[in-house]
């Protein structure tokens, strides 16, 4: 680890966006808000700056980065060609929470793609993210701005916790609307494959493309020796560092009853992240985070809740499982990983 540096923490206003653009152009790292989660950005054309991302995050070298652009014209510099399937998705979902994987151009460094011959590209909708890319004047390579393995940051304070002293600047743009990372779809092969579900849902992608395969790594851990289509699928993800996450599957009443019984036997040990119906049904005095009525609200609350309860040194965090439709598929993909693929039916 190189020496600690001073990290500027500043609002994502015009003055600081301009300053951040200069820092990126100079090869420094800047964390910035997007509509999904905070990103840790570097000039995608600058190999040394991109290498510094891996070091600041403690990220395995074999896990490639997403390149963020502000205009479609930047895409042509990054990829070899744009197939019709990609054009359709871009028209419908960009800017937004969708990352598209295509064959990379010769100009894209293997440091960005971890040696793969494809590159992941996304055009975010968050105005500060777009303004930063414009100010830098280059595409920005950016993973989520967490230390590797921890839940992605959905507030600037989360980034500060993980990255203070490791990067030049953190732009504070408030809480991220979506709260889960973008959907990642691979369009480099014969059939489209969803590698990571997100707020642009599998159903929405199918409505545009017809059939979209769901990668085997989305809902199951990879078997020993099974090759990861997306290297990110094989690494530990989203788990708090202290707490153990237990994923409960059942209806709201059964989940509440399970927590009531658990608290009777083990007081002061657990907390729970629940949707409104289950949260209201718990009678025991336990630390309950009410994550709202629908899956979109649950998604935007989840990582913040996991980080907060972890900071409180909660031993067990119960999380509510949801049906795997719409946003529910993205939620379950993250929840299963946080819970190390253990599900408790109640
Ligand atoms: O919402 C998001 O996507 C956020 C914001 C900052 O844009 N970024 C993000 O990046 O979540 P990261 O690095 O945490 O996740 C990127 C995922 C990883 O699972 C990685 O393995 C996969 O995308 N990926 C990137 N390039 C790939 C490629 N060429 N082929 C297959 N998977 C790729
Ligand atoms: Mg990440």
Secondary structure class reads: alpha/beta
Low-confidence stretches: none
How much of the sequence lies in strands comes to 15-25%
Identify the overall geometry.
Answer: globular
Helix fraction bin: 25-40%
Largest sheet: 11 strands, mixed
Order of helices and strands: EHEEHEHHEHEHEHEEEHEEHEHEHEHE
Strand order of the largest sheet: 1-8-2-3-7-4-6-5-9-10-11
Could you give the distance between the termini? 45 Å
What radius of gyration results from the CA coordinates?
20 Å
Question: Which ions, cofactors or small ligands are bound in this entry?
Answer: threonylcarbamoyladenylate, magnesium ion
Let me know the number of strands: 16
Notes on the protein architecture:
This protein is an alpha/beta fold and 346 residues long. It contains 12 helices and 16 strands. The protein has an 11-stranded mixed beta sheet, with helices on both faces. Strands 14-13-15-12-16 form a 5-stranded parallel beta sheet, with helices on both faces. A hairpin with a 6-residue loop joins strand 9 and strand 10. Helix 1 (14-25) packs across helix 6 and helix 11 (295-311) runs parallel beside helix 12 (327-338). The chain is globular and about 60 Å long. It starts with 7 loop residues before the first strand and ends with a strand. The model has no long low-confidence stretch (mean pLDDT 95). The site of threonylcarbamoyladenylate has 27 residues, from strand 5, strand 6 and strand 10. The site of magnesium ion has 3 residues, from loops.
């Amino acid at each position: 680890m190189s020496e600690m540096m001073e990290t500027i923490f500043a609002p994502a206003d015009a003055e600081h966006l301009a300053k951040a653009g200069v820092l990126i152009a100079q090869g420094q790292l800047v964390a910035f808000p997007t509509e999904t989660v905070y990103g840790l950005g570097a000039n995608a054309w600058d190999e040394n700056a991109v290498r510094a991302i891996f070091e600041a995050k403690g990220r395995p070298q074999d896990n490639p980065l997403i390149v963020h652009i502000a205009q479609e014209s930047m895409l042509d510099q990054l990829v070899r060609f744009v197939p019709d399937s990609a054009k359709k998705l871009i028209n419908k979902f960009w800017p937004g929470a969708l990352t598209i994987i295509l064959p990379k151009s010769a100009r894209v460094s293997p440091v960005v793609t971890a040696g793969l011959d494809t590159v992941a590209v996304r055009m975010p909708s968050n105005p500060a993210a777009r303004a930063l890319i414009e100010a830098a004047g280059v595409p920005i390579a950016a993973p989520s701005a967490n230390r590797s393995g921890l839940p992605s940051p959905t507030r600037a304070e989360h980034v500060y916790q993980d990255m203070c002293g490791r990067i030049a600047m953190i732009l504070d743009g408030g809480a991220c609307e979506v709260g889960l990372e973008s959907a990642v779809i691979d369009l480099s092969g014969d059939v489209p494959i969803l590698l990571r579900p997100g707020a642009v849902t599998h159903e929405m992608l199918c409505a545009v493309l017809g059939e979209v395969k769901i990668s085997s790594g989305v809902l199951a851990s990879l078997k020993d020796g099974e090759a990861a289509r997306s290297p990110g699928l094989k690494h530990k993800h989203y788990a708090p560092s202290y707490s153990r996450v237990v994923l409960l599957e059942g209806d709201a009443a059964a989940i509440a009853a399970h927590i009531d019984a658990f608290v009777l036997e083990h007081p002061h040990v657990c907390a729970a992240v629940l949707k409104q119906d289950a949260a209201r049904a718990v009678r025991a005095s336990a630390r309950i985070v009410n994550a709202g009525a629908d899956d979109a609200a649950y998604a935007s609350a989840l990582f913040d809740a996991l980080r907060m309860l972890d900071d409180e040194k909660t031993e067990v965090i119960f999380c509510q499982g949801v049906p795997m439709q719409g946003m529910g598929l993205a939620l379950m993909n993250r929840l299963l990983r946080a819970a190390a693929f253990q599900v408790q039916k109640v």
